[in-house]
Amino acid sequence: MNAILLMLALVVPSRILFIGNSYTSRNNLPAIFREIVKSDGQPIPTIEAVAPGGKTLEQHSTLPETLAKIDQGNWDVVIVQGQSQESAMAEVALNIRTSFTQGAERLFARIKAKSPNARIVLFETWARHPDYWKNPKADLHVGRDATEMQARIRKWYAKIAEGHPNVIVAPIGDAWELNYKNPKANALHIADHSHPNYNGSYLAALVLYATIYQPTQLNILWHGPLSVAEAQRLQQIAKQTMKGRTP
């Protein structure tokens, strides 16, 4: 167990910053996260976000809007989400690997300089929907199928966390993968096979909540537009994904 992260996890965050792109902004993921925090009886933090479409970690590391948010300082948690393909393509493309890893390092350094006690939570993204690979024009640089793509995403988010005691990965993509192991499960992607529907954003927010707050139970009453049954199903997936994981 990472003793530093365990100690930081005991501090209830009052200021949380999201850095990402459309995977964060679609369905207003920060607002869903806020409602989950509120529903579980936690103090409601100040939440801000910078999430312009398509941005990579390297682009965020020089984007004035992102740097201005980081430079506000006194963040307790900073959630960092990369572009949807860059972690998978880092496996086979040296230029993308360099961009991904160096962009992460620059962001981590800036966050640490402005918020020395911040926890950095990496938003592990998800693979394309399996139907993506039915298209003959599918870009195989991300992997030959959803399983390979997710394995690469998992590997490279873990890689950029290595050596940083204040950085932890929120296994969102792993939770999505678990959902699709049930062929009858509701989809989490929209028709483009990439972006999340509301179910997908709700599951992402659950995993972020469980990663940051480390609740002993995950029994969230708030379900937004989802049915109670679907919200409970997604909560079970989040629980299974987080089982046995520690900060």
* Helix count, DSSP H or I runs of 4 or more residues: 11
Looking across the biggest beta sheet, what order are the strands in?
2-1-3-4-5
**Helix proportion:** 40-55%
What share of the residues does DSSP label as strand, in percent? Answer: 5-15%
Characterize the overall form: globular
The CATH class label is Alpha Beta
Main β-sheet description? 5 strands, parallel
Query: What gyration radius follows from the Cα positions, in whole Å?
Result: 17 Å
Helix/strand order, N-terminal first? HEHHEHHEHHEHEHHH
Q: How many distinct folded domains?
A: 1
Question: What class do helices, strands and sheet pairing give?
Answer: alpha/beta
Q: Which segments are poorly predicted (pLDDT under 50) over 5 or more consecutive residues?
A: none
Can you put this structure into words, describing what you see?
The protein is an alpha/beta fold and 247 residues long. It has one domain (3-242): SGNH hydrolase (Rossmann fold, 3-Layer(aba) Sandwich), CATH 3.40.50. The protein has 11 helices and 5 strands; from the N terminus they run αβααβααβααβαβααα. Strands 2-1-3-4-5 form a 5-stranded parallel beta sheet, with helices on both faces. Strand 4, helix 8 (146-161) and strand 5 form a beta-alpha-beta unit. It is globular. The termini are close together.
